[in-house]
Each structure stands twice: as structure tokens, then as C-alpha cells.
Amino acid sequence: MTEKILSRHVQEGALEKGAEVGIRIDHCLTQDSTGTMAWLEFESLGLERIKAELVVSYCDHTSLGFKGESTDDHIFLQTIASHYGAKFSKNGNGVCHQLHYERFAIPGKTLLGSDSHTPTAGGLGMLGIGAGGMDVAVAAGGGLFHLTVPKVLQIVLTGKLSPGVAAKDVALEILRRISVKGGVGYFIEFAGPGVKSLSVPERATITNMCTETGATSSIFPSDKVTEAFAAMQGRGGDWVELAPDKGANYDKTLKIDLSKLKPLVAMPGMPDNVHDIDEVVGTKIDQVYIGSCTNGSYYDMKVAAEMLKGKHVCTEIDVIVSPGSRQAWEMLMEDGSFLALTKAGVRMIEPGCNACIGIGFVPGHGHLSLRTVNRNWKGRGGSKFGKIALCSPQVAAASALVGKIANPCELPKVKVKVDHLTVDDYLILEPAGEGMEIRRGPNIVQLEPQKPLPSVLEGEVLIKLGDGISTDAILPAGPLTQHLRSNLPEIAKFTFYYEDKEFAARAQEKNGGFIVGGDNYGQGSSREHAALAPWQLGIKAVFAKSYARIHRANLINVGIIPFLCDTDRLEVGDQLHLDVSKLSGDLVLINKTKDDKLKVHHDLSQREVEMVKAGGLLAYTAEQK
Ligand code: MIC
Ligand code: SF4
């Protein structure tokens, strides 16, 4: 399926595994925390209008507008989208990924989003890829998106989920088996007789969370189930079939028997810290949060409502429900679930990202919050000290009743069938066109121009980190920074805030320097601020053992070379010297402090080498004109 889609979109390079190709992008999406930068970058391209078939600017991450700066960001996003010809989804309408598969996704087409969970659209058979804002800006302007052609991992599903077991458990099972690194360099394709037992929202839960394996994208076939879902969305005409050819080859295959799965929980730390429910049942919790782009569908909410109807949640904890879209929100009102949840003691919050990135409901000291979201690493919920565990809406609802992790399979079965959906696009605005004045608050700060790479990089190692450093560790989201996403000089002050509060000040004082990471450096979000902020602080290069795909691309886009090397011999304070006048083959890194020489290399393509030499993607794109 992915080969078919790529072959219809490839415009540059040969479609061979491991080779770099440039593909045409049909749809683009931006959201409010990465979108302001993406749109400023789009503006700097000097185009009159967007050129991709459809671009939607969504507001969802800071929809509650708890700071005036975020409100200014929203107005900027609304007016700039309208000016350049993009649709705009207003605050309160829901989370970009859920909205995109509900209202816009088309099987077989490509979607590039400035958010790592863009593969959610794969639940409807669309090839969604997460990228940094600069890549999305270029694609929105009709430019190609470049990627290394991944291998394909086929996951064959058989059987059917048992009552109490959910699509989320499939996602957690995949993470348990292949880990947060197991998808790196792969597209994941779902196949097998079990596929037809899963609805589109259930499939979208799985593709959403395959992001956590490091996969470039993941996709389900587009079949009769997809067709019925598109028809319920009033978009029957958008449906096309998508299936693999008989005898198609895969690089790897994994089998999951849905009927054998049990409820699972990813305990704090990493999304692959997965446990059988039996191992963690009875663990005391302090909060339950049901929502996010992983589990925000009407079906998910309705299941929770049916489980809590006529009962009360435990008053020792807080229970919050935030549907993923206004469609789900309205339907919960129409069918009485909203009232049932409210009477059960649940706090209902408007559709949006909300607690998922720590906008509200930040867990307290030593607290454990049980959530249906997709990420649970340190700092994710908006504080360093609160912990997050991941589970299905079924586990969350069962646990909400007793204030402890509980097994939904031990409760009476609930059956939910969705046979109609309410469509309401009132908060999706059509563009007005060039006449629209772009309104910018003082927080919208234009990026400084990208400067060509010097021939020598010199400076000090400013920080040394372990394996699996997430973009949340590099640049935390949540209440600290969320309102500063459009203001790079200000947000840069929070770089590595939870790892080392003095980092930004030290980097500024020393006029930049180097970062040393471990394995899978930069895993997690597409947030290009995690590359832009170090760039703003004068970081000259990163040395690590391996990089997560999107962060690697973001570093290159801002002109920072992600070097590969054995980092064991590098320490904080080491003075380094690296001649980068020739970027071919191995380079010799001179450690002046230790009087040591270290071989370093990079895996940049020729195009990427040209890009870093120019100073980054924007400078390179300007040079190409
Ligand atoms: C996330 O879930 O980490 C985010 C917040 O949606 C990010 C985007 C961002 O940093 O704004 C993502 O997934 O890319
Ligand atoms: Fe929003 Fe959370 Fe989804 Fe990111 S993972 S898009 S913060 S709901």
C-alpha cells in the first residue's frame, strides 16, 4: 500500500529502499503550537498562496488560551490561513488528527503535518507523515517533501477483540513487542482478517500510537468499513479502495491475534514500559484523563459513559473527559452521555489537547495520572514530578470508579455500536483570500535569517545526555512554554529546562557549543522548537549514537549537523574543534581538553549537505529559486 501511494507521488529520485526521494504532498496540516513558526516560515518563502490541494490550520493545543500570547497566536493563525488560502479550524473544534480523519482525509493521498501524530490519518488509508514546520511550509507552497524510503513492516491481525479489550491495547502490544525504537526506518502496514473487525476510529488509535515506535507512518487498508465511515461523515464520495497486491513483499512481519489480547497499561517513563493489567491492578492513582488524539472518538467517550452511567467515580481522584472533536462532543450531548458522565462526577472539558501536553490538570507531587493519551515520559504532563500511565478508555473508566488501576474485563460488558455521526463544520472556516489582513500580536517574532555553515566548528560540550532523550526533554511543552511558541528568543531560555536549568544561560555565555546525546536522540514530537531553540542559543552540532527521524530532519533544517559517533569519550566542558569544510567520509573531531581524536560521521544525503552548508532549509530553498 505504501509503495503504491509513494509511486503515485514520487517526483524526484528512485523508489528504492534506503534512497532519498522527493514526494508530492496533497494535504498539509498545522496546529497552534508548531503552526505559528510554520506559517512564518511559509511567509518567508514569498509565495502568494498555498499550492497544496488542501491545507488546514488547526487550533487545539492551547485552545483554552490561558495566556494572552496564545490568544494572539490563534488570531495570527486564523488571519494568515485565510490570507494564503488555507482552511482554519477554530478553538473548541477539536484535535487536528481526529478532525482530519473525520472531515478531510482521503485514502491513498498524502498528508504532511507539523505534528508527529499525523499518521493517525492512516486509520482511513491516508499516508500521513509528521514533520517539522519548515518541511510543512515548503510542502504547503507546492515544494516536495524528502524522505528516505523506509522498509515495510506488516502487522497481520487475526481474531477479534474480547469485551473490555480495546484498540489501545493493540497499540500497547505493538510497543511492548517492538519498543519505542522498533519502528525506526519503517512504514507499518496492517493486514489480515482481524482488520475488518476494527472501526476507523479504532484503527486511528493504533496508527496514532505507532508514532511512538519511531515508524515514519502507519496505515490500514481502505475497505468497506472505511467506506461506511466516510458515508457517515457525509463524505462517501471521498472513498476509494486501498489494498496491498496479492503476494506483496514485506521486510518484516509481525502477527497479533486480537482475541488473545488482554488489557495493558504503559507505566510511567516510556510508552513501551507496558505491563499486563494483572501486574498493576490495585495501583493507587490520583487522576484519570480520557481524551486526546489517541482516544478522543465518540466511540471511546461513549464506551466510558456506558461504563460510568448510573455510578459515581471515586472522589479521592479527579476524573476528566475531553472528547477529540466537536462531533464527539455534540453526539455525547444528543445521546445523554454528557449528562451521565457529569452525574457520575466527571469533569467535561471542551475538545482539544488540554491535559495531554500539560495545559491544565497537571499532576501534583508524586501523583500518578492514568490517561488514554500516547506519551508518558518525564515532564509530559506539565510537571517534572507528576507521573503518567497510559491505557484504554475501558481501563480508565474502570479505574475511575475505584481510584485504583482496575480491570474492565471484570465489569459487566458494555456494547456500543455507532451507526450515525453528526456532522457540524461550523467552526471550520473557508479562506477569505489576499484581502485578509494578517494580525500579529507582539509575541509573533520573525526568525533571524539562516547563515551559511562556517568551515570550522569550535566550542565546548555544554551538556551530555543519556539514551532516548525526548523532544519534551529538549524543550518542554506545557504551561512553562506553550505561549512562547512564536517567540524563539524567549522560548529558547527553557532549553533542557528539566535536565539542567542553567543550560540556556551557559550556552549564551559561552557563545554556543555542542550537545552530546545517546541513542534515539530527539524521539517524540515534531516540535521544531527542539532544534530551533538550540540554534538560537548558538549550538553548533549535536553528537549522538542515533537520532529520531523528525528531530534529525529538524536539526538539518536549521543547519545543525546531527553527527554520529561513539559519545563515551566526550564529557561536559571538553573543548572541541571540528573542520567541516569537507563533509564527505569520516571527520576527525579534536578534543583539545583531553588531547584526543575521535572519528565522527554523518548520514546526510547530498541534498542535506547542501542544505546545512546554506544554513538550513529556508536559505537553501531561497538559493534554489
Ligand atoms: C505532542 O504530542 O508532543 C505534540 C505537542 O502534539 C507535538 C507537537 C508540538 O510540540 O507542538 C507533536 O506530537 O509533534
Ligand atoms: Fe495534542 Fe496530545 Fe495529540 Fe499531541 S498527542 S496532538 S498534544 S492530543
CATH superfamily annotation of the largest domain: Aconitase, domain 3
Largest sheet: 7 strands, mixed
What is the helix fraction of residues, given as a range? Answer: 25-40%
Radius of gyration: 23 Å
Question: In the CATH classification, which architecture of the largest domain applies?
Answer: 2-Layer Sandwich
Number of domains: 3
What is the C-level CATH assignment of the largest domain? Answer: Alpha Beta
Which fold does the CATH topology of the largest domain refer to?
Answer: Aconitase, domain 3
Count the strands?
Answer: 27
State the shape.
Answer: globular
Q: Give average pLDDT, whole number.
A: 97
Secondary-structure-based class equals alpha/beta
Uncertain runs: none
Beginning-to-end CA distance, first to last residue: 34 Å
What small molecules accompany the polymer chains? alpha-methylisocitric acid, iron/sulfur cluster
Number of helices: 20
Q: Spatial order of the strands in the main sheet?
A: 24-23-22-21-25-26-27
What does this structure look like?
By secondary structure, the chain is an alpha/beta fold. Helix content is 28%, strand content 19%. The protein has 20 helices and 27 strands. The longest helix is centred in the first third of the chain and has 17 residues, at 68-84. The radius of gyration is 23 Å and the shape is globular. Bound molecules: alpha-methylisocitric acid and iron/sulfur cluster (SF4). Iron/sulfur cluster is lined by residues 61, 95, 115, 117, 292-293, 353, 356-357, 373-374. Alpha-methylisocitric acid (MIC) is lined by residues 33-34, 61, 115-117, 130, 357, 477, 524-527.
